[in-house]
Amino acid sequence: MHTTERTAARATGHVDRHHHGGCSGEKGPYSAGLHVMAIFVVLAASLVGTLIPLAGKYVPCLRLHPFMFVLGKCAATGVVLAVAMIHMINHAAHAFGEECVPDSWKQSYDAYAFLFAMIAAILMHALETQLVDMFVSSEAPSSPLGEGGEKRGVTEGEERADGAADVTGDAHHHSHVVVPVSGGATHRLLSALFMEFGVTLHSVFIGLTVGITNDAGTKALLVALVFHQMFEGLALGSRLADASMRMSLELLLALIFSISAPVGTAVGVGAVVGSKVAVTGTTFVVLQAIFDSLCGGILMYLGFVLMLSDFPADLRKHAAAGMAHRGWKRLAMFVALWAGAGIMAGIGKWL
């Protein structure tokens, strides 16, 4: 967006509607009690969303049909894609056009938000490649099918569905199977960890927005934030459950995400009540725009490369030719993906 277009956008209110914190402090009544209540409401929503998929993994009476878990993964992928593009990169693009952002930023380059997102995605590719190579090198000797593969929750069918297994030999259990961990356990682990980092950092800034907003704005934001954290929690929880981690690590990562938005809100409340920390102005807006751009690039790479790659494999596993209700299952997977993206895109109107 060129400088003149940014000016017109600000004049019509398009930029202000999307800013998080903004260049100046909020005006109007501010109740610390309301904001403290928001901390616990958001914490509860985040915990519930994240723990539902994990509870189904460990509590027999809550265990869902495997295909329902696949639908959850599809919806999670849609959520991540919408969060990346609408909640992060879009907000960053608007933030770089705020009035208090120095002209040196505005005039030197028109697409900083997309530049930082692209850099993050490229770095994610390099990091993932190195991590996969490291895991393959360290675990290859202990990864024959029936030992390492099954211990990590990876079966031959899953690996072959991912296109990662190299099978040679005959069909009478005499084949030599090389199962790179990049196609199974490592793939799912990296998806979960990268998603954890992106949504947690993003949630801190979202929580900070609630913490510095006046009472009228907080009431509207709180409703949107509850749904935002609930759906992000469901998306993250489904990935954690699929990553074959130890339960203690799953719970730790779930807790870290769950407290991220409340911590941001608490920082905002403390800054407003104590008036000792500036959470508005040039530095805040620029830093938030940069972090939103970087996190958006991370989640965009995660969604398109690491999460959507599961979709064809799940189709072959649950809706292959000749399987019962194949057409309905395929349709359900697409609808779940679209619904996840659509719901989070709608929430982007308020957050």
From TrEMBL:
Location in or out of the cell: Membrane
Keyword annotations: Membrane, Transmembrane, Transmembrane helix
Annotated InterPro entries: ZIP
Keyword match Membrane: yes
Membrane topology: Multi-pass membrane protein
Top-level taxon in the UniProt lineage: Eukaryota
UniProt KW Transmembrane keyword: yes
Regions crossing the membrane: 34-55, 67-89, 109-127, 249-273, 285-309, 330-348
Biased composition (Basic and acidic residues): 148-163
Pfam families: Zip (PF02535)
GO cellular component: plasma membrane
Region (Disordered): 1-23, 140-166
GO molecular function, one term: zinc ion transmembrane transporter activity
PANTHER family: PROTEIN ZNTC-RELATED (PTHR11040:SF44), ZINC/IRON TRANSPORTER (PTHR11040)
Full protein name: Cation transporter
